[in-house]
Design goal:
The chain is an alpha+beta fold and about 90 residues long. Helices cover about 60% and strands about 15% of the residues.
Length: about 90
């Protein structure tokens, strides 16, 4: 299923870093009154953009972008499952 182990591990680490970063930044209270969210990551409020949110979003999107290149088959299904997990995990925790 994996074509390139190193790219898969990099993608998995980036996705994990994005989700954990989102959870930590929300717990620290850095996202006050978010009005704009992209894949459950707050990126803006009425006062302006959240730099931490934009960085977390960039890391997560990069991990999602690299994921299909590391797989041989079931690229769409695996990417969809990871995307669904990224969206649901912060809301469930």
């Amino acid at each position: 299923m994996k074509k390139q182990s190193s790219m898969f591990l990099l993608s998995l680490c980036l996705l994990s870093l994005g989700v954990i970063g989102n959870l930590v930044f929300e717990a620290m209270g850095l996202f006050s009154n978010p009005t704009v969210q992209v894949i459950s990551i707050p990126i803006a409020s009425a006062e302006g953009y959240f730099n931490h949110g934009l960085l977390t979003l960039a890391i997560t999107v990069l991990g999602l972008f690299l994921l299909p290149f590391a797989l041989n088959r079931n690229k769409a299904k695996t990417t969809a499952v990871f995307l669904l997990a990224i969206i649901l995990i912060p809301q469930l925790v």
